[in-house]
Design brief:
The structure is a homodimer of 498-residue chains. With 498 residues, the first copy, chain A, is α+β, with helices and mostly antiparallel strands. Chain A has 15 helices and 20 strands. At the A-B interface, strand 10, strand 11, helix 8, helix 11 and strand 12 of A face strand 10, strand 11, helix 8, helix 11 and strand 12 of B.
């Protein structure tokens, strides 16, 4: 659940396909806006810092009074005539519209929540958003949400502000939805998007994009045509539910006469995947659509521009599954469903041992889904499988997730991205499907069937990790700084308006 | 590793087989000592409180300068002519001798360490050892170590003090060994016991006993003839050691191309036990000696005095393994080796989920052993099994443990216990083998081949738990208070000296 790490191959692409000699010559109508972007640079960065100082974290019930209000204020300040908080059964969303009197409308998807953080792990305070020198990159804002997703989102809002301040009409109308639960799997995004008036507004758009920091340090940009789906579940075995084993932690010597809910969980887990952990063995599991020729060709082309050893180093991994060659490993990445154990926790978890027979244990799983699988289908199959194998007592807590999402390469939303990137001299890597997940299904699925994707120049990294950053003053010729990122949205909006 | 919970059935025995009408008439030679015990009551309780205030906790490297020194001081104050700290590769032990000029010598085993504790979980501060009213029991010292094992041990020392103060010769000589690592599995007890002079001194004893709070609230006392052995191991799967999977936690979407050390651990665990978790399936595992007729008869007799429903309630357990009837479940308890998962920990362990593919995971296991299994044999078989099944990369960290221990019922040390208990009108429950473990093997095994057991009246509970207590002023006619506990040791020493 995170749109950044999702662009897995992007940072790993070796080829440098931009820049200077192919640089787009500025059309005259951008001069005023560009000047305004430069004028508002300092204030814009300050607005980003102020936003980072207001974290909304769904997993911690933190910042949900101010968070959506602050975003509504920001939206109104950049020209949205309508911006409102949308209540859901979870954290509220935001719905906003900007009617520019343009013939076409574009949807925008944003998140105002951020991932949890542990301040002690950071080299500068995560809510201070200090400007820090990053070797090889330049000055960057370091803070929670810097790149995931407030930095790119604020750059997009600054693009709108530049239109607003210069009195220039936006080339498209905007329909914006934002949520505050992206980091917990967007459990209520449907309640925002499918509210009748919101859905109707989105139905009139050419598609929905999310502002994103699309550049890797080597300048490569990936255009992705979708993302895997995912379900996150916590499987809990307990003596209470099982009716066997203890109802509280008891002395481990009793294992000789009392059943163990921890072993029960281990045995249940063991049935979910093959012996190597890599093939899903859940009975009657939704079947993935096999990878097709177009996807294979796209992967082959992308693989030829990627540096396998750099990717292995980045992920501290010396072998891909089954010692697959790189291209097949990438095919596996985009096409195979997975059952991953995010965490195991049960009984005594401190240093050394403690002689207890625990009354419960939990496995946290994420199951990634590819077309034509559905989140509901996967969850139902998992539950039925557990029940059939004698593990029906194991609690399956579905904490979030959604279907896979796909957008065709010829969608206007995507073609406009490619056109803008080419105008910058960037030959994007086309990628069939992010292995990570984002809730694009809510736009690409029924009933909206809109295109959906990510767009934006600029660079950042460290989403979900300490020292998350977004480059403001770039010293790297392959990477746009703040004003360049802002201008990429200006150009994208013009391209979409064509 | 814990001598108290080890007496599993004791608290659950329903029959009340004491007390008043059968009460032993005091022999004249105990009158002076009894009066002295009463005189030193307050000071003795204070000495217990002072000792509790000085916790030694091996798992936390806490209190190992003062702990053994304090014990040496206590021993000297009650008449041990020799008492010294014995260095080991771990925490120091204590060796002490009291030569009473008696024809016979008795060994005493003590521990000066206590279990970890979390003060917030206690209703009175765990190091203050406050005197608290316990309904149905009377006033009890509440503190860490109160019953496991400082309370009973101090009661024993107060018995020696009473001899000392009244100038009466002890009926036996004493050879005492104490350790500071009982709670972590006594990894260095051999370095204390097998030091040449210590071993020689112990070799001359009739056996070695540990002071213990032997009475349940219903007055039942169990005489146990041994204990299971145990090994504690932490199994850690990691990408680093495996050479597959990541070397750090990475985004879970990569599961489609990167192996998972967590699944590797789950699959390894799955091979260790049968599908129900209850039969060890480690290849070439040491074979238990089958339960014999004498043990079965002892269990049958004990079971007839136990309250199954009370035991089920105590352990929040509604069914024994395989729905066994009580007697067979108890036979299983004393005769079957186990592989228990004490804890699972790996990856993300907080609330909800987090989309990581963890680089490592750990299972904490304890494996209980019965005659004729050995700790070394079990550990070697476990490692060989893992290697044979493709899990040789999984780190097996042996953190402590030892062989099972057995003492014949006709040993003098045991017969003296039975005689003293009968003199109190108590018909003890004879029990073949505690399911928990204590390092009696170091005395009962080669080369010493001494008897070993636990003895002492009085009552306490909550070892390893919050609000651990030991009764001081008993209002329960089935339970001795402090002076009664002290006197039980006086009588035991006289009986041993006969």
């Amino acid at each position: 659940m995170k749109s950044l790490s999702v662009r897995i191959p992007a940072v790993l692409l070796a080829g440098l396909l931009c820049c200077a000699s192919l640089a787009w010559s500025e059309p005259a109508n951008l001069t005023d806006i560009k000047a305004q972007v430069a004028r508002q640079h300092d204030a814009g960065v300050k607005r980003l810092q102020e936003w980072i100082a207001l974290p909304s974290i769904a997993a911690e019930d933190r910042g949900f009074r101010e968070g959506p209000q602050h975003l509504v204020g920001l939206l109104k300040s950049v020209g949205f005539q309508h911006a409102e908080i949308v209540a859901t059964d979870g954290k509220p969303g935001v719905f906003a519209t900007l009617d520019a009197g343009a013939p076409r409308s574009v949807g925008v998807y944003m998140m105002y929540d951020v991932k949890q953080f542990v301040p002690a792990e950071w080299s500068s305070p995560p809510l201070e958003a200090a400007l820090v020198d990053k070797p090889g990159l330049g000055k960057a804002v370091v803070g929670r949400g810097a790149v995931n997703q407030k930095g790119p989102e604020m750059a997009f809002l600054e693009a709108l502000r530049a239109f607003h301040e210069t009195g220039k009409a936006l080339p498209v109308n905007l329909v914006l939805v934002a949520e505050g639960e992206e980091e917990i799997g967007s459990p209520h995004i449907g309640q925002i998007v499918h509210r009748a008036d919101v859905e109707a507004a989105l139905a009139g758009t050419v598609g929905v994009f999310m502002p994103s920091a699309g550049q890797d340090p080597d300048g490569v940009v990936t255009v992705s045509l979708g993302a895997k789906g995912v379900i996150e579940v916590q499987l809990t075995a307990s003596g209470e539910r099982w009716g066997k084993g203890p109802g509280k932690d008891i002395h481990s010597s009793l294992k000789a006469m009392v059943d163990s809910p921890v072993w029960h969980l281990v045995h249940a887990l063991n049935t979910l995947v093959s012996a190597d952990g890599n093939t899903v063995t859940i009975d009657d599991y939704p079947q993935p659509r096999p990878i097709n020729a177009a996807e294979k060709a796209m992967i082959a082309k992308a693989a030829s521009r990627m540096d396998e050893s750099q990717m292995k180093a980045r992920y501290s991994t010396s072998h891909w599954i089954d010692d697959l060659p790189f291209q097949q490993a990438l095919e596996r990445l985009i096409s195979q469903p997975t059952v991953n154990i995010e965490g195991l926790v049960g009984g005594y978890t401190g240093p050394g041992g403690k002689t207890v027979l625990p009354h419960s244990a939990q496995a946290k799983l994420d199951l990634r889904l590819v077309p034509d699988m559905t989140a509901a289908g996967a969850l139902a199959a998992l539950k039925a499988h557990l029940a059939r194998h004698g593990f029906g007592d194991i609690d399956v807590n579905f904490s979030g997730g959604y279907d896979p999402t796909s957008t065709p390469a010829d969608a206007e939303l995507i073609q406009a991205q490619i056109a803008v990137l080419k105008s910058y001299g960037i030959d994007p890597v086309m990628w069939p499907r992010n292995a990570g997940s984002y809730p694009g299904y809510v736009f690409t699925g029924a009933p909206l069937h809109r295109a959906s994707g990510h767009f934006g120049l600029g660079h950042g990294s460290g989403a979900h990790a300490p020292d998350e950053y977004f480059v403001i003053d770039s010293t790297n010729p392959n990477v746009k700084g703040w004003d360049g990122a802002v201008m990429s949205y200006v150009r994208y909006l013009y391209e979409l308006g064509k």
